[in-house]
Structures are given as structure tokens and as C-alpha cells.
Amino acid sequence: MRKLSTVVSALFYAELHEKLFITFMTSSVIYMLATVCLLKYSHVLSHQYWTVGELRSYRIKLLCLLAVLVFTAGMIYFFYIHKIYCTPRAFSYFSFCEYWICISNMGFHASSFYEFPDHQLMLGRKPSSEQDVVARKES
To answer: Confidence band (pLDDT; 50, 70, 90) for 4?
Structure first.
């Protein structure tokens, strides 16, 4: 069902979909560039040494940024080829680049894990009543 809704929205609202995707990509690349530059120059200007986790996170972020730039160039190329010449499989290559951009974007954000080695992320729901608290203590 989810796949169908994506296809339908791209079919009926192609121009809006295209504009929103371009906006997302532009803001995403600007954010990644700003983050990588700020990480680099904050250490250079303050004469601080990198911790192992910070350096690992920075390198992953830089690699993901480069991947996003390369796959964005590929995506633009294949989109152009698809629109102008209707080349076979051009849209498949476009989609391939799009998926790798998503994976690189997730990797960029997941690398923050190395920046906070002393922190834990806990997920759960807040108890809605005292009965929930008592029931959990008894279990």
C-alpha cells in the first residue's frame, strides 16, 4: 500500500514532487557541508585534538557527504537523460542513485553515535497511571 501511495503521488503531483525533492536535496547538502566545515574548523581554530570518536564521526560524515555529492551528480545526469532522450534504464539508474543518497544520509546522521560515547538513548513510553508503575515494579 505504501509503495502505491508513493507512485500515485509522484504520478499526479510530479511537479510538486520534483520541487520538494530539489528543496530537500539542496537543504540536505547545505546542512552536511555546514556540519563538516564546522566540525573541521572548530577543531582547527580552537587547537583542540580530536578524540577517537570525533575523528571517526568526522570521517564517516565526510565520506557520506562525498557519496551524496557523487550520487547527486549521477542522479541529475540520469534524470536529464531520462527526460530528454528516454534512454532505457535511465530512470532505474536515477533510482539507484536516489537510494544511495538515502543510505548516505542515514549514515551521516548515524555517525553521531561516535560523538557521544558516554551517553545512552533509551526508548519507551511514559506510564499513563500509577497502576502501570505498580504493574512494572511487580514484573
So the answer is: very low
> Which tens digits make up the pLDDT trace of 20-73?
889 999 999 999 999 999 999 998 878 888 889 999 999 999 999 999 999 999
Q: C-alpha cell of 131?
A: 497502576
| CB contact at 8 A, 71 and 25 | no
Length of the chain in terms of residues written: 139
Where residue 14 falls (left for φ over 0; alpha for ψ -120 to 50; beta otherwise) is alpha
3-state secondary structure 43-80: HHHHCCCCCHHHHHHHHHHHHHHHHHHHHHHHHHHHHH
Whether the CB-CB separation of 56 and 117 falls below 8 Å is answered with no
The x, y and z cell numbers of residue 30, run together, are 547545505
Cα maximum dimension of the chain: 68
